[in-house]
UniProtKB/TrEMBL annotation:
Membrane-topology descriptor: Multi-pass membrane protein
Keywords: Acyltransferase, Membrane, Transferase, Transmembrane, Transmembrane helix
Family under the similarity heading: Belongs to the GPAT/DAPAT family.
Protein name: Phospholipid/glycerol acyltransferase domain-containing protein
Entry GO terms, CC: membrane
Molecular function terms from GO: glycerol-3-phosphate 2-O-acyltransferase activity; phosphatase activity
Protein's GO biological process: cutin biosynthetic process
Cited InterPro entries: HAD_RAM2/GPAT1-8 (IPR056462), Plipid/glycerol_acylTrfase (IPR002123)
Species: Lactuca saligna
Highest classification ranks of the organism: Eukaryota, Viridiplantae, Streptophyta, Embryophyta, Tracheophyta
SMART domains (UniProt xref): PlsC
Length: 487
């Protein structure tokens, strides 16, 4: 197929209303005040849509969400936050039909800057047609879109893009949002069954490029109802968070799991935890954990009912102050870090997360091999969590608030899976290289969680979130690389 033009909202995305994405932009780029104000005017936006003035409602949402916000901040949210929520709402069948074209164009109601990165990198789009935000000489969005960006001008821009040729296929859902369909030789209305040929394409097993790294505080896409729940919960969440922090500090660790359960926290334990180190042992156990949030060592300590010092690469001073367990700060100087880990193990058990940074999606980043060089007493521990409202880690915001946001969730849940201690033949003492040991631990932890291993590192994560381009391989599945990702 030569060319495909598809609407985004209601076509490639299942949801036809872009309002929740403006709510995300307002929250992540500007804060709670703008988020609240945008929610308050939602009834007006909805009324305009009912009255057939949907374009005016979208313009109003754009103005409230972006006016006075720096374009660099909007671009950062579009790069690091929005792709995850777009991807979760993606209609895979529509995308497969879209991806069959040699040239692919996405049409959106939202400003192009909010969509372009996701459309190009994850949907494989060649062009994105959307409104253009006005920008002041100070680099701030005016909240206004350029005149003529809505309605019939979409047809004009697409016609100019293809010159004298008709696009081969147009994909849309609602007639009012799909005026460009009249330009296409063939049309797909995703409200209705596809033709036999289109269905054959949609049934293929190809997958879009997954979102592996993302940022932002909100766990769920803030539809009006979800946003209202979040706003109503925040005052109670703050009180609950402070209460939980106090409990973790004043109670013995053996009592914390039971009292936390009364306040909504829950830990699911699988496998058999190892016994505490004996006094005659000259070296403690090194617990090697997957890194889901900064609360991983605390969840482990709660399960073991004793305080296990944690090795950390980057932790804010406030998080260290709030932590009820000892933290050992690493420097990323290999020699210095090795000495600190050895010292910690000589004093007892220690927990380390070799990924070096958190990853929210079901993928494991490449493990640093340093831990394998320092001890043969290695116990792999798989960690995972479930949160309702707020993520516990962020790369863009103030990291000192990470533990507070985690504990603001109504019923945070951790799953801790203990694997068997590595046998001697699987450690460096049998002649294996440190990287082989690290790769083996990564594989067995990924298998226990149903995750996939990657070669991505902490540097890759921050390069992607910062918007620096580079080519990285996708995770391998069944021993082969699925495809390439350009980030």
């Amino acid at each position: 197929m030569e060319s495909v033009v598809s609407g985004l909202e209601g076509s490639l995305l299942k949801n036809n209303d872009p309002f929740s994405y403006f709510m995300l932009l307002a929250f992540e780029a500007s804060g709670l005040t703008r988020f609240t104000f945008l929610l308050l005017i939602w009834p007006v936006i909805r009324l305009l849509d009912i009255c057939g003035k949907g374009d005016t409602g979208v313009k109003l949402a754009i103005f409230v969400a972006t006016a006075g916000v720096s374009m660099s901040e909007i671009e950062s949210v579009a790069r690091a936050v929005l792709p995850k929520f777009y991807f979760d709402d993606l209609d895979k069948d529509a995308w497969r039909v879209f991806s069959s074209g040699e040239r692919r164009v996405v049409v959106t109601k939202m400003p192009r800057v909010m969509v372009e990165r996701f459309a190009r990198e994850h949907l494989g789009a060649d062009d994105v047609v959307g409104s253009e935000l006005g920008v002041s000489r100070f680099g701030l969005a005016t909240g206004l879109v350029q005149v003529g960006d809505f309605g019939g001008s979409i047809c004009d821009r697409i016609a100019a893009m293809f010159e004298d040729k008709q696009p081969s296929l147009g994909i849309g859902r609602c007639h009012s949002d799909s005026s460009f369909l009249s330009l296409c030789k063939e049309q797909v209305n995703t409200h209705y069954p596809m033709t036999k040929n289109q269905k054959h394409i949609a049934d293929q097993e190809i997958q879009p490029v997954p979102v592996i790294f993302h940022d932002g505080r909100l766990v769920k896409r803030p539809t009006p109802f979800t946003a209202l729940l979040i706003l109503l919960w925040i005052p109670f969440g703050i009180i609950l968070s402070i209460t939980r922090i106090i409990i973790a500090h004043i109670l013995p660790m053996c009592m914390v799991p039971y009292v936390m359960a009364f306040f909504g926290g829950r830990v699911i334990v699988r496998g058999i935890p190892p016994s505490p180190p004996s006094r005659r042992s000259n070296s403690g156990v090194l617990f090697v954990c997957t890194h889901r949030s900064l609360m991983d060592p605390l969840a482990l300590s709660a399960v073991l009912q004793r305080k296990i010092p944690a090795v950390t690469y980057s932790l804010s001073r406030l998080s260290e102050l709030l932590s009820p367990i000892q933290t050992v700060r690493l420097t990323r100087n290999r020699h210095v870090d090795a000495e600190r880990i050895k010292k910690g193990l000589s004093e007892g058990d220690l927990v380390i997360c070799p990924e070096g940074t958190t990853c929210r999606e079901p993928f494991l980043l490449r493990f640093s091999a340093l831990f394998a060089e320092l001890t043969d007493r290695i116990v792999p521990v798989a960690m995972n969590y479930r949160l309702e409202f707020f993520h516990a880690t962020t790369a863009r915001g103030w990291k000192g608030l990470d533990p507070i946001f985690f504990l603001m969730n109504p019923t945070p849940m951790y799953e801790v899976i203990f694997l068997n201690q590595l046998p001697a033949e699987a450690t460096c003492s049998s002649g294996k290289s440190p990287q082989d040991v690290a790769n083996y631990v990564q594989r067995i932890l990924a298998a226990s969680l149903g995750f996939e291993c990657t070669n991505f590192t902490r540097k890759d994560k921050y390069r992607v979130l910062a918007g620096n381009d580079g080519t990285m391989e996708q995770p391998k599945k069944n021993g082969r690389t699925v495809n390439k990702v350009v980030m």
